[in-house]
Structures are given as structure tokens and as C-alpha cells.
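This entry is listed below:
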Amino acid sequence: MKKTIVRAVSTAAFLSTVYAGSAYASEHTVAKGDSLWKIATKYQTTVSELKKLNNLNSDFLQVNQKLKVPAPEQPVPTVAASTTASSTSVYVIKSGDYLGKIAKQFNTTVNELKSLNGLTSDRIYMGQALKVPGKTGTPTAVTSPVESPSTSVYTVVSGDTLSKIGVQYKISVAELKKLNSLSSDMIYVGQKLKVNGKAAVTTPTPATPVTPPVEPTKTSEYTVKSGDTLGKISQQYKMTLQKLKELNGLKSDMIYVGQKLKVTGESAAVTTPAPVPAPVTGAPAGDFATAFIEAAQSVMGVPYVWAGSTINGFDCSGFIYYAANKAGYKIGRYSAAGYHSRSYYVDQPQPGDLVFFENTYKVGISHLGIYIGDNQFIHADEKKGITISNLSNPYYTAHFDGFKRFY
């Protein structure tokens, strides 16, 4: 009697068999807001599989681009008596993850993870979907976040922030971002967001008059200046720190120069001497902003050179170093993260502010440029050199961190 020899089939080889040839007959047309991770999740595959299938060298996608994807109804062949084949599920990488940490979490090795996902290096990025050994015999399908049955759609208006919308609908910023698959706090006017509960009502009219929370009978406006803290301002106006934060809808103690705060009591102009405007070294206003942008535009088209900071070639941080010093702001040569730590966030960006991006070629702050207005910024692009791009580009929207200004 002949013995049947059962060979263990690795998950990577098994999936390769499933997706071979005609299994990739389906085609996906890229829509606005799509990303490789979103498409990979939809078709229950990985970003690396999609890139390999479509010969992609980067995560950049264009609207209406055609992508080959696994057939949605592809039957899974049965491997006879394959008791040693590992079941898999999909794990989405979070901030702080690395292959060693993930391997330990799923009781496997780094080499197994790399083999399972077709990785040639240890580089991974936040939002990437990885196949990992599962706990059950059936591969775990990636499912979209379950929407609350009572969700509705909210249209972003001027002045909105995720925090403000979260308070309005009694939902945390983290839940709001998860519900809408947002990777940053950046939103734009006209954007549609899913929210819990009914659609926002502009002015609820109760049947019985309801007394709203009583605001202090007299409030005034205070402009934050250099050296101020919330504690210092609350003492100045004889308020508690908590009351000051509640009055201004603040979730943290972070404030910035020029910010307008509501305070109780007399106007700051009456209770304290009018502050003498002190020059802010890197503020994007007046001569510096103009000179900063002019210096940046004077090198349009100069090629991209890794670690370059001269007119022979620039990388993103070398470009900022060159333009800032040409504009008269003497600053050292730092990485993108280094300039990030030497600037503060602004809610209303002005031409000459810095714009930062995260998780591009590495985890964390990894790219920056100079905001020039009209949702555009100038930066060092790896393929185009010094060029102007638009923040509405899906790639930059997905990696957007925020606007900042030199201290």
C-alpha cells in the first residue's frame, strides 16, 4: 500500500497559488480618498501584494488609475491533509510597531513574518496590513470598522476641528478618526464625516424653555504673548485653570503666541499694560515670509540629492536650511524631525509657515515643505526636485501632520 506524503504548504505559497493567473482578473478603479491600505483591506490582501501585482515602486496613487486586484469571489483550493499549514489573519501596524515586536506578539519569528509577507527588509509603516499567524484554523478576514446603526453624515464647515465636532456629537477624537479612517487631524471645508447620532441641528428649540449654561456676565479677550502659560493667565484674571480651559474649549494646556483666549473680568488691556510687540524670530510675517518664499522659489527645479543643502541639489530638510538662511533666519542644518521640534503648531497657516508630513519613507516626522497659500506648498520632491505640490493630493493628505511656525 502506498503512503500519501503530505507536504506542508506555507501561507505565502498558498496565497501565491490562489492569486496566480486568472485569479487576478478583477480590476479596481482608484477613487478619491483611496489608498493602497484601504484597497488591500477591501480585497482581503496586503499592500505589498498589491504593489507586487501592479509593479508599483511607491504608495502614490492617482484618481481613475486601474489596479489589478484579487478576484473578490476567488475559491480557496483545499490542501488535502495540510495540517501543518499555518492559519493567518491580518494585523494593521500601529505607531511604535516593528517586526520584532509583532513577531513576539504572535509567537513567530521576524524571518517568518518577512517570508509570509514577501518583505525584503525590516522596514514597515503605520497603517500597513501584515499577514500574521492566526489563532484559529480559519484565516481571519479583515473587516471594516462596524458603523453604529445610528450614524449620520456631517459636512465640515469653516472653523471646524475634529475636537469641536467630537464635542458636538459626544464622541472622542480617536473614535471620530477611527469611524472615518483618518490618519491625522486634518479636515477640510465640505468634507463628509460619519458621526454618531442624528445630523447636527443648528439651534435646538426645546418645547420647554431650558436655561443654557450661564456664561460669566462679563468676558474679554486676551492675546497670548511670549512666556505665557494657562496657569499664569488664570492667576492674572483670578480664574481657575479648569474654568479657563472650559471657557475656551481647550483639551490640553498647549497655547501659542498670538492665540486669542476668552477670560472673565476686565479686558486685558485694562488690567495689564499693553504688551510691546516683540519680534518673533521665525514668524512667517512681513519681510521674513516674503524672503523665505522668494528664496525657495529661486531654486525651482534644482534636483533632489539626499542630504544636499546647496544649489547643486537638496533634500527636504536641506532645502529648508538653505531658504531660511537666505531669508536672514540663521538656523542650523537639522532633519525634518529636528525642524519639527524647533517650531510650534498654528491653526490658521500663513504663507511662509512650515508644513510637516509623517510616515513617508520612515515612521514619524519624515518630510516638510514651505506653505505658499491656496493649499499649496513648495518642497524637495525625490523625482521632480524643488517643485510645488497641492495638499489635496491624496498622498499628502494621508501623511499630513500639521502646520508649524519657527519659534
Q: What stands out?
A: The radius of gyration is 26 Å. The chain has four domains: 11-133, 151-196, 219-271, 286-406. The domain at 286-406 is CATH 3.90.1720.10 (endopeptidase fold (from Nostoc punctiforme)).
